[in-house]
Amino acid sequence: MSDKPTPLSTSALAKALAKSTKQMFAELESLSWIKRDKDSWVLTPKGEFEGGRYRESHKFGRYIIWPSDTVRHNALVSADAHLLSSADIGKAFSLSRRRAELILQEIGWMTPGRKGWLLTALGEAVGGSQRENSATGVPYVMWPDGLVDNAVLIDRVVGLEKGGDDVARFLCCDGHQVCCEAERHIDNWLYLSGLLHAYGRPLPCDEKLTADFYLPQHQLYIEYWGKENSQGTVSAKMKKKEQFISMGVNLIELNDEDVLNLDETLPRMLLKYNIET
Q1: pTM of the predicted model over 0.90
Q2: What domains sit in the chain, N to C, each tagged with a CATH number?
Q3: Secondary structure class of 184 (helix, strand, coil)
Q4: Source organism's superkingdom (predicted)?
Q5: What's phi and psi for 124, nearest 5 deg?
Q6: Which residues contact 93 (CB under 8 A, 6 or more apart)?
Q7: Which of 143, 129, 95 lies closest to 27, judged by CA?
Q8: pLDDT band at 89 (very low <50, low <70, confident <90, very high)
Q9: Over 60: is that where the pLDDT of 59 sits?
Q10: Please, what is the angle between helix 97-107 and helix 181-192, to 10°?
């Protein structure tokens, strides 16, 4: 019996490297190991130097095979060394992986599949690479490390501080301009979670008071009482809180600690009003 290692087809090579077959062909093409000739992939002299050969099959026709040790080739193994996962991008901006995924989706760089995430044409244009878990087949996307400096992404994550009337405005993903960083985090969380909401909505009362956030489909108000909210005095805030109580409306109250853990605190608070995210 021969102990000679079994060569790998390109699809088998992709599986061994936990990549999609499409991505594997793209990488081999970028390395100039293969090239497209009409409707087929053909080896280049460089690909032949790296050990690529052709195999004939009655079922599949002619296809390319690679030496088994190609899975350890530096050009392929290190291809992901400088790529970022959604979790890495989230960490760069102090966001959870889930928040980062929703922002990347909102921009239009990836879209949810039946399972996992699929790269879009816009995502590919900024350097995204489609991957596939070799064990589960679940697709995911990897990103170039320079993406954290992308102006579009920074605008979505960090927001723009707007001047005017001597009042700072922070731009949210949905276009709302809010008064502080904490309110921007809350607004973005609601928007990326698919919850229709208003900002600065007047309360239905005789007093000229506005709610921080209002979810019309659920008749639910959300107020941020943290230190960062510099609007009005403590007495003004208490006046608004008393108005909420007198109206008997549904109300969620957030403080600075809640804002730091929105992914944990807000879903739990919303669930009390039968709102699932």
Answers
A1: no
A2: 8-78 (no CATH), 82-152 (no CATH), 179-271 (3.40.960.10)
A3: helix
A4: Bacteria
A5: -65, -35
A6: 100, 148, 157, 158
A7: 129
A8: very high
A9: yes
A10: 70
